[in-house]
Amino acid sequence: MKLYVIFFYFIYFFHHVKANVINDDFIKTKGIHFMLNESPFYANGFNAYWLMLIGSDPSQRHKVSSVLQDGASHGLTVGRTWAFSDAGYSPLQFSPGFYNENMFQGLDYAIHEAGKNGIKLILSLVNNYNDFGGKNQYVNWAKSQGQPLTSDDDFYTNSVVKGYFKNHIKAVVTRNNSISGIAYKDDPTIMAWELMNEPRCSSDLSGSTVQSWISEMASYTKSIDSNHLVEAGLEGFYGNSDTQKNPNFQVGTDFIANNQIPEIDFATVHSYPDQWLTGQDDEAQLNFLTNWLKVHIEDSQTILKKPIIFAEFGKTTKGPGFTPQQRDIIFNTVYSSIFSSAKGGGAAAGGLFWHILAEGMDSFKDGYEIILSESSSVSDIIIEQSKRLNKIRKMYARLKNIEKWKKARKLKD
């Protein structure tokens, strides 16, 4: 009789866990792991920076829905997208504090559709680069108001510019979704706020300027939103103390110090050996990538003691002699490092490839695009990674539930 009861409970918990792969709760961290409903969460996902832009056009919204549905069917659990577009073409923010409601509704739609498909979103709040305005636009706004600024890096230190950016953080974080009626800060579909896409500061290579800025902005974001995680948007470059781990350049960030800020919940790394090691052959680039993955996972686990996501990676089709097999090797290398860490309970929590497109988006192609219906070999690799990470998640969830059942039985006996 007791064996029958144990078997019944095991089957119940197995099916209960299987039926709740993703549900509406906030992602949290516990040590080196992401947690969802007290079980580890893994972020196999994608970048789709264009979701807000395309979502703002009702005649094109089906592409947003299509990509999110297709991603979910491949087991993808996290998407990363822009929550910024400053001045210029189809802006979200016309000028400091003045917003384009049509664009905001595009972001509303993207978040709503992601939630329907069980996909969490990382929303990035400003760009390091001039694309979509970026820090340069903020500096220009302040200059037009008489601020004596001379460099884009004044973005990190000028009080007027920082005020503009804090106002933008508040406008996004406290936005009420026009479709769901839920404030962004209360929406568990959002996994995390990213302070900046790839922060860099060429005027201070030590990372100290960026360090102060991250600390201030992360603290401010947390002060108005206690539900969501915050990350800095770093590429993973080390500071002066660890230059041997970098490619042949520094960008003014420090992977260790910047991510040790208490308000930063997890580390991010980007991986583009085909851009960073131009002139070196595929073998050299692959060796660099393998080590890049290894040292960042180790440092996240032993020094930072926080989860790590490889938030951008890919292989351009525009490189000399490109073959799909070369791209498959890059994906397999990144995914294998993540899986190896995850199955051992390590800090690697997922990877987001750059970038996914729907069919008929030729103008968005940059060489790194993945259209799942047109990229059979890499799509198979993506599905397999989703399955492997989901098995780990279900294993931990079953163990947790069985342990709970055992404790309950002991109390009853």
From TrEMBL:
<dbReference type="InterPro" id="IPR045053">
    <property type="entry name" value="MAN-like"/>
</dbReference>
<dbReference type="GO" id="GO:0000272">
    <property type="term" value="P:polysaccharide catabolic process"/>
</dbReference>
<feature type="signal peptide">
    <location>
        <begin position="1"/>
        <end position="19"/>
    </location>
</feature>
<feature type="domain" description="Glycoside hydrolase family 5">
    <location>
        <begin position="25"/>
        <end position="355"/>
    </location>
</feature>
<dbReference type="GO" id="GO:0005576">
    <property type="term" value="C:extracellular region"/>
</dbReference>
<protein>
    <recommendedName>
        <fullName>mannan endo-1,4-beta-mannosidase</fullName>
        <ecNumber>3.2.1.78</ecNumber>
    </recommendedName>
</protein>
<keyword id="KW-0326">Glycosidase</keyword>
<dbReference type="Pfam" id="PF26410">
    <property type="entry name" value="GH5_mannosidase"/>
</dbReference>
<dbReference type="GO" id="GO:0016985">
    <property type="term" value="F:mannan endo-1,4-beta-mannosidase activity"/>
</dbReference>
<comment type="similarity">
    <text>Belongs to the glycosyl hydrolase 5 (cellulase A) family.</text>
</comment>
<keyword id="KW-0732">Signal</keyword>
<keyword id="KW-0964">Secreted</keyword>
<dbReference type="InterPro" id="IPR017853">
    <property type="entry name" value="GH"/>
</dbReference>
<dbReference type="InterPro" id="IPR001547">
    <property type="entry name" value="Glyco_hydro_5"/>
</dbReference>
<keyword id="KW-0378">Hydrolase</keyword>
